[in-house]
Amino acid sequence: MKTHNNRVDIKVVIVGNMSVGKTSLIQRFIHENFKENMNETIGAAFSAKELTSMSGSKRIVGIWDTAGTERYRSMVKMFYRDAKAAIVCFDITNKSSWEGLRSWISELREVEENCKVYICGTKKDLVDEGISEREVPLEKCNEYARGIQVKLLETSSKTGENVDELFQSIVDECVLDESIIAKSSLQLAENDKRRMCC
Questions:
Q1: Which pLDDT score, from 0 to 100, does residue 191 have?
Q2: pLDDT computed for residue 22 by the predictor
Q3: In what order do the strands lie in the sheet with 116-122?
Q4: pLDDT tens digits, residue range 154-188?
């Protein structure tokens, strides 16, 4: 994937318990395909893709896929630094992966306070196709997401449902933030000029 001399405009980290489907999510987004059995991520793996925001500007999204096992947990924290957004994954057919969600979010915010958090419920196809039972009620997820003011999407890496929408939301919101910051900086500069000349 060509990334313009490895330039990354928006750094995204993907975190969550082991086997919730983080690598499959990235595989679907970057390569637009699905592999049934993905290898366990050792430490972290990097991918990048260029997206066009709602406003028409292009951004290169750099994605760090982090290991979910306890033995890599302290190492994974290094990848939070300077992340503009984090996708915190849980498997909707696995209650314990949902229970681990809070600790991932609090750990992220300790390191990178202003990082935008997106909650991603994975493996929606297993429930839709009747292969597995849903263990985490959607209303419970929505209630928690509303409470901490973050976006929640349920995805399927197998069918592609909501995968592109998730990454598009990140790009659109980050670009919007950039324009707000730029406008407020311009406003401050103009106010300073007025103060100096009057």
A1: 58
A2: 94
A3: 44-52, 58-66, 10-16, 85-91, 116-122, 151-154
A4: 999 999 999 999 999 999 999 988 878 766 655 66
Tell me the Ramachandran region of residue 154: left when phi exceeds 0, alpha when psi lies from -120 to 50, beta otherwise. beta
How far is Cα 41 from Cα 60, in angstroms, rounded to an integer?
A: 23
Give residue for tokens 């490895």: 6
Residue 1 pLDDT: 39
Contact by Cβ (8 Å): 34, 157: yes
Give the count of beta carbons closer than 10 Å to the beta carbon of residue 17. Answer: 22
Asked if 121 and 92 count as a contact pair (C-beta separation under 8 A), the reply is: yes
Q: How far is CA 65 from CA 3, 12, 37, 43, 137, in A?
A: 17, 9, 16, 9, 26
pTM: 0.86
Q: Among 93, 85, 11, which Cα is nearest to 46's?
A: 11
| Torsion over CA: 90, 23, 104, 7 (sign) | negative
